[in-house]
């Protein structure tokens, strides 16, 4: 079979099992778009801004575990997608991003819409390629998918000059079914000796804690994690990226940890004697001040990426390997061994934890006439029976969603944890809904964040995506306002966001249903009504208490045991 | 501590940029970096001199290993190794100084490779510390220009860094 470059790209994607491509056309990719036009199987989703193509593909990948695919043009198309690529990179999301480039003979001449895409994206991709010869195209695409999806996943950019996709030049097509790269060999199995060593330490532990992260979700290791935690009877806390791997309603779950983690989770981290970190990377929002991090603990760390181990915090027992396999092996070693966890000590430990739990650190005023954002998220949980896919943007609403939705399943909570990209939520939901057309998909957002990719309401109409947008409208960049309140004597410099469009009218003008709710007592009815429109996008503008803050809070640079628990409270 | 890290990497156009990028992006210190092809045209050999605490060096080697273009890597300073760097140094050499400079070049086993009425250009090979010592030994005012390749290194013994 002889194919042109454009046709090769389309064929490669099909052979790779890709079903959806998120993109936006332009000069440098016209040949590719022409090849798209001539086929039916591959579905192209036309976004309204390339940033959204990145986030949509990313959301698709997070919800399915399959790589998200993006196609954009050169120059501004490529620069617009960079935020999407960087967002995926920070959270280790598998993505393949095809960017058009000016024809090879004019590369370097400042040609129209030329930008050094490989150079610009280099620091925020797992790897990138510039295809210089048509003969390399299929091979490069295969490698890109291989690299993006194996080891610690991540985005891969392929920059494709226009002449490579020239419809007039055809070569025999062959898609390699295997790749071998001498320079890229991700670890496929954790060391059994280390695993046994870790189990031995776990059996000796008196105050153990599991601290697990996005790696568990990425490797689909929720089941072995849950089994191991329940078998051992240890408490577990999860990072913002790890939520849902161990069920949020599970009895051993202490809640999220870190800057806005629960009192019990952070205190347990501070007092633990054996910490087992799984697929987590000791991010500064999690550790707080590293010098005060888990001061008494022997630390076991399971991760696929050796460079994550002992990067921020020194680890005692490193286990490099795929999280799922390592957890399964651990469980096996535990079950086959004759040692049991120290029951007496554990009982004491749980008693201590229950005392911390009794502080009820996430309480809020439930009788308020103004809607509390926490209440809105709890209502969302109730109306969706806790079974929706929830994407979010960045800010207070994101933290409230993470704290109060109590995710019971992995891949349900989809947010930009590492880069913290405002504008992520709506486009990510597009990807999620494309992947799961029948599922309930909600965006929990803020009036500031939603405006960063609001144009995607049109994409949602074009593809009939019945997403539910729950806007927690506090009239502020709430998270910024909170920091200014705490650390800048309430000087609210440029964080007001009272000037917004009328979101109801705006949504209607995009062809969707817009709703607004202002009183606590109307919240349930409004939320139910919103979700009763099964096949329509509904934008629910929820006017919430503008003064609400996210608690608990560890101030940046403080230790886990130093938290603000409620308004006006001292550090505890 | 000073470390010499030797890297075999794919001879791809972006490979050097990836390594350089890594060092700037993560704020690692880089003293010198040399790169040239090997007997296998698909591979380049890079020698990188850096310094930092044990933790930082560990991170550097891990991060380098993570680069898809890096095939193999060794921290030469962990074992017996040889280090060589070449320097060409142009010195003011007027009548009165000529003898003195020649003597110094002989002591350091260098070669004078270019001569004019007023200057000598000296070629000198050795560990970086030896080149530094030479620079220290000549009168600073005589130095017109210094060109150094940066160190490259190789492990001692019969074993080589290969695939
Ligand atoms: C693209 C981008 N710009 C700026 C920021 C910094 N930032 C973090 S949270 C936030 C405020 C978000 O406001 P809003 O969306 O209304 O959410 P709220 O905190 O009010 O719930 C800002 C500006 C960011 N995370 N992303
Ligand atoms: Mg807001």
TrEMBL record, chain A:
Q: What class of enzyme is it?
A: transferase
Pathway per its UniProt entry is: Amino-acid biosynthesis; L-valine biosynthesis; L-valine from pyruvate: step 1/4; Amino-acid biosynthesis; L-isoleucine biosynthesis; L-isoleucine from 2-oxobutanoate: step 1/4
InterPro entries per UniProt? Acetolactate_synth_lsu, AHAS_TPP, DHS-like_NAD/FAD-binding_dom, THDP-binding, Thiamin_PyroP_enz_cen_dom, Thiamin_PyroP_enz_TPP-bd_dom, TPP_enz, TPP_enzyme_TPP-bd
Q: Where is the Thiamine pyrophosphate enzyme TPP-binding domain?
A: 393-542
The reaction(s) this protein catalyses: 2 pyruvate + H(+) = (2S)-2-acetolactate + CO2
GO molecular function term, any single one: flavin adenine dinucleotide binding
- Top-level taxon: Bacteria
Against NCBIfam families, the record matches this protein to:
acolac_lg (TIGR00118), PRK06466.1 (NF005058)
Q: Give the family per the record.
A: Belongs to the TPP enzyme family.
Descriptive protein name: Acetolactate synthase
- Native organism taxonomy: Bacteria, Pseudomonadati, Pseudomonadota, Gammaproteobacteria, Chromatiales
UniProtKB/TrEMBL annotation, chain B:
Q: What does this protein do?
A: Catalyzes the conversion of 2 pyruvate molecules into acetolactate in the first common step of the biosynthetic pathway of the branched-amino acids such as leucine, isoleucine, and valine.
Q: Name one GO cellular component term.
A: cytosol
Q: Which species expresses this protein natively?
A: Candidatus Thiodiazotropha endoloripes
Q: What's the top EC group for this one?
A: transferase
Q: Which CDD domains match?
A: ACT_AHAS (cd04878)
Q: Which GO terms describe its biological process?
A: isoleucine biosynthetic process; L-valine biosynthetic process
InterPro entries (UniProt xref): Acetalactate_synth_ssu (IPR004789), Acetolactate_synth/TF_NikR_C (IPR027271), Acetolactate_synth_ssu_C (IPR019455), ACT-like_dom_sf (IPR045865), ACT_dom (IPR002912), AHAS_ACT (IPR039557), AHAS_small-like_ACT (IPR054480)
Keywords per UniProt: Amino-acid biosynthesis, Branched-chain amino acid biosynthesis, Transferase
Recorded catalytic reaction(s): these are: 2 pyruvate + H(+) = (2S)-2-acetolactate + CO2
The family line of this record is: Belongs to the acetolactate synthase small subunit family.
An example molecular function term from Gene Ontology annotations:
acetolactate synthase regulator activity
According to the record's subunit comment, the protein's assembly and interactions are:
Dimer of large and small chains.
Q: What is the lineage of its organism?
A: Bacteria, Pseudomonadati, Pseudomonadota, Gammaproteobacteria, Chromatiales
Q: What is its EC number?
A: 2.2.1.6
| Coiled-coil residue windows | none
Name of the featured protein: Acetolactate synthase small subunit
Under the heading PANTHER family, the entry gives: ACETOLACTATE SYNTHASE SMALL SUBUNIT, ACETOLACTATE SYNTHASE SMALL SUBUNIT 1, CHLOROPLASTIC
Report which superkingdom the organism of origin falls in.
Bacteria
Where the record annotates domain ACT, the positions are 4-78
Pathway(s) this gene product operates in, as recorded in its UniProt entry: Amino-acid biosynthesis; L-isoleucine biosynthesis; L-isoleucine from 2-oxobutanoate: step 1/4; Amino-acid biosynthesis; L-valine biosynthesis; L-valine from pyruvate: step 1/4
């Amino acid at each position: 079979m002889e194919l042109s470059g454009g046709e090769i790209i389309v064929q490669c994607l099909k052979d790779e099992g890709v079903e959806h491509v998120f993109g936006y056309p332009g000069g440098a990719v016209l040949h590719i778009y022409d090849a798209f036009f001539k086929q039916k199987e591959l579905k192209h989703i036309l976004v309204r801004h390339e940033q959204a193509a990145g986030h949509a593909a990313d959301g698709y990948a997070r919800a399915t575990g399959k790589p998200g695919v993006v196609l954009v043009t050169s120059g501004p198309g490529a620069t617009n997608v960079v935020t999407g690529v960087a967002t995926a990179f920070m959270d280790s999301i598998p993505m393949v991003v095809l960017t058009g480039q000016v024809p090879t003979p004019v590369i370097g001449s400042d040609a129209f819409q030329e930008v050094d895409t490989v150079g610009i994206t280099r620091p925020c991709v797992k790897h990138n390629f510039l295809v210089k010869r048509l003969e390399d195209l299929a091979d490069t695409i295969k490698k890109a998918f291989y690299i993006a999806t194996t080891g610690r996943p991540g985005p891969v950019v392929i920059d494709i000059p226009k002449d490579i996709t020239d419809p007039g030049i055809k070569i025999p097509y062959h898609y390699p079914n295997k790749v071998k790269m001498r320079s890229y060999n991700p670890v496929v199995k954790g060391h059994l000796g280390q695993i046994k060593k870790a189990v031995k330490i776990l059996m000796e532990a008196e105050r153990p804690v599991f601290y697990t992260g996005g790696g568990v979700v990425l490797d689909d290791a929720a089941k072995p994690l849950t089994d191991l935690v329940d078998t051992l009877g240890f408490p577990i806390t999860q990072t913002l990226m790890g939520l849902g791997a161990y069920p949020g309603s599970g009895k051993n779950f202490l809640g999220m940890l870190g800057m806005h983690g629960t009192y019990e989770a952070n205190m347990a981290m501070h007092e633990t004697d054996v910490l087992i970190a799984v697929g987590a990377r000791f991010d500064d929002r999690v550790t707080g001040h590293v010098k005060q991090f888990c001061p008494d603990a022997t630390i076991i760390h399971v991760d696929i990426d050796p460079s994550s181990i002992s990067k921020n915090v020194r680890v005692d027992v490193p286990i490099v390997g795929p999280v799922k396999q390592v957890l399964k092996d651990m469980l096996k070693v535990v079950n086959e061994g004759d040692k049991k966890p120290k029951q007496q000590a554990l009982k004491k430990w749980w008693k201590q934890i229950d005392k911390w739990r009794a502080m009820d650190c996430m309480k809020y005023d439930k009788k308020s006439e103004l809607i509390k954002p926490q209440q809105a998220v709890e209502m969302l949980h109730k109306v969706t029976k806790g079974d929706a896919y929830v994407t979010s943007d960045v800010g207070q609403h994101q933290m409230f969603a993470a704290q109060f939705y109590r995710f019971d399943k992995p891949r349900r909570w989809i947010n930009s944890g590492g880069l913290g990209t405002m504008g992520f939520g709506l486009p990510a939901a597009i990807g999620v809904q494309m992947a799961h057309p029948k599922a309930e998909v909600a965006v929990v957002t803020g009036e500031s964040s939603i405006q960063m990719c609001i144009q995607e309401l049109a994409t949602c109409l074009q593809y009939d995506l019945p997403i539910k947008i729950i806007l927690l409208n506090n009239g502020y960049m709430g998270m910024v306002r909170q920091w200014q309140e705490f650390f800048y004597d309430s000087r609210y410099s440029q964080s007001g966001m009272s000037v917004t469009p009328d979101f109801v009218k705006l949504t209607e003008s995009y062809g969707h249903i817009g709703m607004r709710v202002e009183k606590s007592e109307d919240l349930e009815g409004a939320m139910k009504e919103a979700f009763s429109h099964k096949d329509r996008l509904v934008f629910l503008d929820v006017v919430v208490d503008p003064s609400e803050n996210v608690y608990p809070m560890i101030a940046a640079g403080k230790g886990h045991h130093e938290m603000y628990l409620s308004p006006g409270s001292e550090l505890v | 501590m000073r470390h010499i890290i030797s890297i075999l990497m794919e001879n791809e156009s972006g490979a050097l940029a990836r390594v350089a990028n890594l060092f700037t992006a993560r704020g690692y210190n880089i003293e010198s970096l040399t790169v040239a092809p090997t007997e296998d045209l698909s591979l380049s050999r890079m020698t990188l001199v850096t310094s930092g605490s044990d933790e930082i060096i560990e991170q550097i080697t891990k991060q380098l290993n993570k680069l898809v273009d890096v095939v193999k890597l060794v921290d030469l300073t962990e074992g017996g190794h040889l280090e060589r760097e070449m320097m060409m140094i142009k010195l003011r050499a007027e009548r009165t100084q000529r003898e003195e400079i020649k003597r110094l070049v002989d002591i350091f086993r260098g070669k004078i490779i270019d001569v004019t009425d007023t200057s000598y250009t000296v070629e000198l090979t050795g560990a970086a510390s030896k080149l530094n010592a030479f620079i220290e030994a000549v009168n600073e005012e005589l130095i017109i220009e210094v060109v150094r390749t940066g160190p490259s290194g190789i492990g001692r013994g019969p074993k080589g860094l290969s695939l």
